[in-house]
Each structure stands twice: as C-alpha cells, then as structure tokens.
Amino acid sequence: MVGRFFNEAQAATRIEHPGIVEVFDFGHAPDGRAYLVMELLRGESLAQRLRRVGRIAPEPALRLLQQMASALAAAHHVGIVHRDLKPDNVFISPDPDIAGGERAKLLDFGIAKISETLMAGARQTRAGAIMGTPAYMAPEQCLGAGGVDHRADLYALGCIAFEMLCGRPPFAEQGLGELLQAHMSKEPPRLTSIDPSLPPGLEAHVARLLRKSPDAGPSRAQLAPMSCSNSLPSSNRLAPSASLKELAS
Questions:
Q1: Which of 131, 157, 10 has its CA nearest to residue 71?
Q2: Would you say 134 and 180 are in contact if contact means Cβ atoms under 8 Å apart?
C-alpha cells in the first residue's frame, strides 16, 4: 500500500500539466507514517456527476474528454501510463479561465506504469498481473499488466466517453470473468443503439477508441495534438481532426 502511495506521488510530480493533480511533497513523518501533500480540489468527481445527472450532453462531454486526453498526452510524453483511468479518478473543478468554466483533473496514479527508463533498477510489474478497474480495462490489460502501454489509457478514455454519453459503460456483465471476456472479444454497442440522437461522427470516434487491437492505437506524438485542438481522439485509438462543434452536432 505504501509503495502504491509513493508511486502516485512519483508519477504525479513528473507530469507538469494543469489536468494532473499537483503533488507538493511526500515522505515519512517522524513517527514512520507515510504522507502525501496534494493540492486541495473543489468540485466533484466525474463518477459523482454521473450519479447526479445520469449522463452528459455531447458538447460538455467532449470538452471534458479533450481535457482528459490532453492530460494523458502529458503523462505519456514522460513515459507514464495511468492504467486505472475511470470516472472515480477524474475530478471536475471550477476554472473560470477556460471554456466551459471547469477543468477535468486526473487523480490516483497509484498503479501507474512508469517506463523502464524512468524506473531503471526498480522492479517492474510482472507479466500476468491484472491491474485496473474491470469496467474500463483494455483487452490487452485483461490479459495481464506486463505488456500494457499508453494505448490502454485511450481504451479507458473510450469507455469513459461511452458512459458519459450513454449513462452506462460499454459492457455491463456481472461476473468478473464475463466482463473481462467482453472487453477481449465482444463488440461494444453502438452509441446510437442506446441514444439515436447522438451524432454519428461522435459514435465513430468513440468506436475507434474502443477497438480491440492495441496495434491500431496512436503513438504519444499522435496523441499530443489533442492538447491544442478542440476534438476527441479519432481513428483507430488515435488523434483527432474534427472540431468539437462538428463532433457534437
């Protein structure tokens, strides 16, 4: 538990981005207890918002998703994969200086995978270890954590996008085995099969994020442009070209 605690601190301090919760200090108190000093956030988690409102309209959903994608790009740029991206780990805070008046911040890098370059000499997660939250895990993550890279975060972003727009994750199987198998082999429902009013272009973007094969995914360089564009990841778990207005209409 303490290792996970400090892993979060180490990961967060390596990423300089307004969409990543800031860690000011961490260590051990004189009595031996571990501590972590983080910025104080006001607002609510995305999970709390979804419980409160059910689902989110396309334009504000896309705005939040763009912010999450930008923060992920910053993490991936320094070799950090979140591996547990879910609504509970996204916090929405008021921010009058940006469009929409609120900012999404990513929390809990406790099981983040840090690249071998950054973790030289440290023990890596062993192959076959399943880490994450099953409702948001990429197919390759369901098989074990050893080979998971940044593309697993993009799949999780697709699951979050689906839930924001439809009010439920793409797969709702009750048993753990059935849920993992669904991620690995079952095609997700089309957004418009749940809400016919959702834009077809938006449906296509979310479907691409939820592609089964990580080999179709983007590089960090392809994901990075999302930080300066008004769009969602588009083709094959990859970077965007359409504007927020185009996707939401």
A1: 157
A2: yes
Q: What is the pLDDT of residues 183-235, one digit of tens each?
A: 999 999 999 999 999 998 889 889 989 999 887 654 433 443 343 344 444 44
| CA-CA-CA-CA torsion sign (183, 233, 52, 194) | negative
- The sign of the CA dihedral 54, 60, 62, 65 is negative
* Amino acid residing at 90: V
For the annotated catalytic residues, the residue numbers are 84
Residue 35 · residue 26 · CB < 8 Å: yes
Task: Map out the domains of the chain with their CATH numbers.
Answer: 43-248 (1.10.510.10)
CB-based contacts of 125: which residues, under 8 Å, 6+ apart?
A: 113, 131, 145, 146
User: Of the candidates 42, 2, 38, which has an alpha carbon nearest to the alpha carbon of residue 20?
Assistant: 38
